[in-house]
Design a protein that fits this description.
With about 725 residues, the protein is of the alpha/beta class. Helices cover about 60% and strands about 15% of the residues. The structure holds ligand C2E and magnesium ion (2 copies). Ligand C2E binds near residues 477, 494, 506 and 526.
Length: about 725
């Protein structure tokens, strides 16, 4: 709300106008004598009538204004003001009509009636306002509106009747000698009441500075008019004229303030409300159609845009959808803020490299879309995808981290692949998913993708039930310790016997389980089952046996994973030293999260192996930071160990590096005696592969164990002889 000072500063013209009135009053005081009767006695009635009409007009206009607006307002104080002004207005009119010199109208004109009407109106003003200011503000019922105005008319009517009663019960206010003592006293009473009103008004200066200003100014003008009316000698005295001018100014000010409260203010409030509504609508639209982080148009916008623009023209159009590799990794290891920053940086680059006519938008998670409204040949789309990949060659700088990433881009074509926006977008997303499996990371939509996608969903649905239905089981692949010559450990490998599709290899369902989060319950089941069966095997053979269980990253991200491992060991009775957990090399990328998780696991007493070592793309420098015990050389290196010098060099390097770091090595995928020879002679600690044994179901492992051990003994004896 505005302060009194601000309101005052706004009302420049008001001050000017009041100043003019006072100058006039000043002139009247100074030149009273020469100005006496200046307008001519004949003209005085007309001049008086004009001023009085203005005064009465202001009062009645206020009453009317409030009458009309109180239909919506219904504030009791405003309503009472309206009724008050109605009475004052009516009294003003009858005063003007009854004025001395006016033509005969119902009753003979003269100062007796005219002065009484004036003084009644004059007294009503402070009394009425004092009452209004001191009553409590509340909502007025619509019946009050009528009642207030009716009583106002009734009061005016009673005053008129009183004055015109033939018996003349009221004493004279003006006689031949000028104004009587009673008139002076009544005028004085009005004066004092107005001063009182001004005192009460001061309280409103803070809460209603505008009303205060106008009422105070009006009251002050009335006081001035009182002084003039008390001290004029006859009606031709210039004081009488000035008093009327003061009176008119007072009512004009009141009219202005009432106009403000009943018309201007509500109108301004409506406009303001409308403006703020529009602003809100704009904001809502912004929220609904734009991505908050990147400020790019969002999926809803894109869909609506496509719906509108796809059918336009007959040019071939294309939609590219792409995701950001390593987004999840950044999010889980560095946090959401970094991941957001990563997307914002990419969004910025996209805006720089893409032509203005392409429509770029941000889809949920790490995905973006680019709509190309026209292309001639596929070659051109290829160039766009190249450009996007090139854009990612520069590392993304996120505060003090520099991260390199690539995009996986899917492309769908209109009208070739899809005939509507929904399909076009969906197919581009399918293609983007397929692109993650391709080396060039770009994939154009093909019809089979949709079927594959559907098949994947069905499989995911089946996998959910697989655990409960007991369709999962474990095969154990024995590992041979080359130094002790004993089968002292085995790797647990999960299998799924699908009721319709038969045996499904882990590579066909583990990635699906990882994507859908099902890996967590599956992993738990595998760990529990592997521990239980290993304990059973140990009891049966009265021999130690270590079991190696594969972990997925989703399991390590689970909050209480180490507690779960601990509970499982306790529940199944497996010694912690007999459990090995395998992580893959790619999991070691998120050092920040993985190292503490592994340390917790190590603290339980289990051992940790890095699986598929050599295939990952992270630097080997992490090895010294990780609490690991074993490296498992990936079988792709073992396969060609004897004919590919590069692979041989790599295996040798791993073996010697492991020695330096005091890590043990397991070689995977040994299929031939020659491969075994090689590893035996190069001091590899353990081997695992079809040559010793394929993975076996628990019962088979129990049954065949002796035979496998015997075969291993023979092989080792042979090797020892050649050493
Ligand atoms: P991995 O952990 O590297 O397991 C070794 C894979 O190599 C197994 O394939 C095994 O059957 C196969 N293999 C072993 N010796 C030979 C050999 O001499 N020649 C050939 N060609 N292959 C050999 P499998 O069982 O198909 O498992 C594939 C992958 O699935 C595993 O690779 C592992 O990463 C994952 N996996 C299996 N079980 C689980 C599990 O319970 N949890 C998780 N998270 N992943 C699992
Ligand atoms: Mg493994
Ligand atoms: Mg492996």
């Amino acid at each position: 709300m505005k302060t009194f000072k601000q309101v005052l500063a706004e009302q420049k013209y008001l001050t000017l106008y009041i100043l003019l009135v006072y100058i006039l009053a000043g002139i009247a005081v100074i030149f009273r004598e020469p100005l006496h009767g200046i307008f001519g006695e004949q003209n005085y009635v007309a001049i008086h009538l004009i001023i009085e009409i203005f005064v009465a007009f202001c009062s009645l206009a206020i009453a009317n204004q409030i009458w009309l607006s109180s239909k919506f307002h219904q504030n009791n104080k405003i309503l009472y003001s309206g009724a008050l002004f109605l009475t004052i207005g009516v009294l003003g009119v009858v005063h003007a009509i009854a004025y001395k010199g006016m033509p005969f109208f119902i009753h003979e004109s003269g100062p007796y009636a005219a002065t009484w009407f004036y003084i009644a109106g004059r007294l009503l003003f402070p009394i009425g306002f004092l009452y209004i200011l001191l009553t409590k503000e509340k909502q007025a019922a619509s019946s009050t509106r009528l009642a207030a105005y009716a009583s106002s008319l009734l009061i005016s009517l009673s005053v008129v009747v009183m004055v015109y009663l033939p018996a003349r019960p009221l004493p004279e206010l003006v006689n031949e000698g000028g104004i009587t003592a009673l008139k002076s006293n009544l005028q004085m009473a009005a004066f004092i009441l107005t001063v009182l009103l001004m005192v009460v008004l001061v309280k409103q200066i803070r809460t209603m500075p505008r009303l205060f200003l106008f009422l105070i100014a009006a009251s002050f003008n009335l006081l001035c008019s009182d002084i003039m009316f008390i001290s004029y000698i006859d009606v031709y005295d210039i004081y009488n004229f000035t008093g009327h001018i003061f009176q008119f100014t007072a009512f004009w000010l009141l009219y202005k303030s009432i106009y403000y409260f009943t018309v201007e203010q509500p109108f301004v409030a409506v406009i303001k409300a409308k403006e703020s509504l529009e602003l809100k609508e704009r904001k809502i639209k912004q929220l609904a159609y734009y991505d908050a982080g990147t400020r790019l148009p969002n999926e809803r916008y894109l869909k609506e845009y496509l719906e509108e623009h796809l059918p336009q023209g007959d040019s071939a159009k294309a939609l590219l959808v792409f995701g950001v590799d390593r987004y999840e990794g950044v999010k889980s290891s560095l946090g959401t803020a970094y991941a957001e920053k990563m997307l914002e940086t990419i969004a910025q680059r996209l805006q720089e490299v893409l032509p203005y006519s392409y429509v770029l938008s941000k889809l949920p998670e790490d995905r973006f879309a680019v709509f190309i409204p026209r292309y001639e040949q596929l070659q051109m789309l290829q160039e766009v995808t190249d450009k996007l990949q090139q854009m990612m060659h520069r590392s993304l700088v996120l505060e003090h981290f520099s991260i390199s990433s690539v995009l996986h881009i899917g492309v769908s074509l209109y009208p070739k692949d899809a005939a509507n926006a929904e399909d076009l977008l969906q197919f581009a997303q399918f293609a983007a998913y397929e692109a993650t499996k391709k080396e060039e990371r770009v994939s154009f939509y093909t019809g089979s993708m949709q079927e594959e996608r559907a098949a994947r969903l069905v499989l995911e649905h089946d996998l959910k039930k697989a655990i409960e239905q007991g369709e999962l089981f474990i095969e154990y692949q024995p590992q041979l310790d080359l130094q002790q010559g004993a089968i002292s450990s085995a790797e647990a490998l999960v299998r799924w016997r699908h009721p319709k599709r038969g045996l499904i290899a882990p590579l066909d369902f583990i990635p699906l389980a990882e994507e859908s989060g099902l890996i967590v319950p599956i992993g738990k089941w595998v760990l529990e089952t592997a521990c239980t069966e290993t304990v059973r095997w140990q009891k049966k053979h009265r021999k130690p046996m270590r079991v190696a269980v594969n972990l997925s990253i989703g399991q390590l991200y689970e909050k209480d994973f180490s507690r779960f491992v601990k509970q499982t060991l306790e529940k199944t009775g497996l010694a912690p030293a007999h459990l090995q957990l395998e992580i893959t090399e790619s999991m070691t990328m998120n050092t920040k999260l993985i190292v503490p998780a592994l340390q917790e696991l190590k603290a339980l007493g289990v051992t940790i192996a890095v699986d598929d070592f050599g295939t990952g793309y992270s630097s080997i420098s992490y090895l010294k930071d990780f609490p690991i015990d074993y490296l498992k050389i990936d079988r792709s290196f073992i396969r060609n160990i004897l004919d590919n010098p590069d692979d041989e060099a790599l295996v040798k390097m791993i073996l010697s590096m492991a020695k330096h770091l005091k890590l043990k090595v397991v070689a995977e995928g040994i299929e031939t005696p020659e491969q075994l020879d090689y590893l035996f002679h190069n001091d590899c600690e353990k081997i695992q592969g079809y040559f010793i044994s394929r993975p076996l179901p628990y019962e088979a492992l129990e049954a065949d164990y002796q035979a496998i051990q015997q075969f291993a003994d023979e092989q080792l004896n042979r090797l020892k002889m050649t050493k």
